[in-house]
Amino acid sequence: MHRRRFAVAITGVALASILALVLAWPLLAQKASTVAPEPATPDTVHLTTPDGGTSAFIAQPPGSGSVPAVIVVFEWWGLNDQIKEIARRMAQQGYFAIVPDLYHGKVAATPDDAHELVRGLEDTRVFSELDAAADWLHSQKRCAKSRVAIMGFCVGGGITLRYALRTPTLAAAVMFYGPPETDPDKLAGLKAPLQGHFGAEDKGITPDRVDAFRDALKKAGKSAELYEYQGAGHAFMHDGAESYRADAAKIAWARTLSFLQKHMKS
User: Fold this and answer.
1) Is 154 a catalytic residue?
2) Domain boundaries, the chain
3) What is the CATH number that goes with domain 2-17+33-265?
4) For a disulfide at 222, which of 48, 83, 105, 217, Cβ 3.0-4.6 Å?
């Protein structure tokens, strides 16, 4: 296969088996605004860290039984309605989802705002807040003994990979079009099963970079599920944005659910 890239084949039984896993993907329109931190509500909790912590949005399945948990890391826009809806969709699939507010109440209104907010992210603080999210989950009766996975989009996809490299206890990690790591020595520490989704038309994270990521994983002796989607660019999962590509998004979502089912519920 040219450049060893994956293409999305929308044919026959393969499509039927993938789409059987897909629920209707709702409209996740981007609502760009800058807001004050949310007050405490039934779906908002506080995460405590040595630096004071931050709030987090939570969504949990109905019922009271034990469930697996997923930390969701937002795109560069921040903790907006789109990422909250993703957390709700995960809850509908039987996962206790939590989205830490890494921007501490700010949501980007423009790409310039997003660039500025991203520059304020520092891994030490971010990882501390992600650790606090995992600790909070384990403090809850429903997740006291649950395995925890992480998934992230855009800048959150890169954070997902870096956190997985640093946190051996994760059950799984799913990254969507986040910056890949191409140093085999750094990838050698990966313990969690990894799945990655990339747009073949992404002008930032190009197919060459994905190929280098795949090669580095192989040199490090690590396996991962890496997929590229023809006709899709960056942020192809963001329903409501111009970048959204329905066919690629539905197949990527089905693959995500299947991957998490295998590593979290089996």
Assistant:
1) yes
2) 2-17+33-265
3) 3.40.50.1820
4) 217
For residue 263, what are the contacts with CB-CB under 8 A and spacing of at least 6?
147, 149, 171, 172, 193
- pTM of the predicted protein model: 0.84
Does the annotation mark 46 as catalytic? no
In tens, the pLDDT along 205-254 reads 999 999 999 999 999 999 999 999 999 999 999 999 999 999 999 999 99
What digits encode the pLDDT tens for the residues 93-110? 999 999 999 999 999 999
- Burial label, 250 (beta-carbon count in 10 A; 0-12, 13-18, 19+): buried
Distance CA 194, CA 99 (A): 19
Q: Is 215 a catalytic residue?
A: no
Write down the catalytic residue from 101, 113, 202, 239: 202
Residue in 101, 113, 143, 154 annotated catalytic = 154
Are 130 and 71 within 8 A, CB to CB? yes
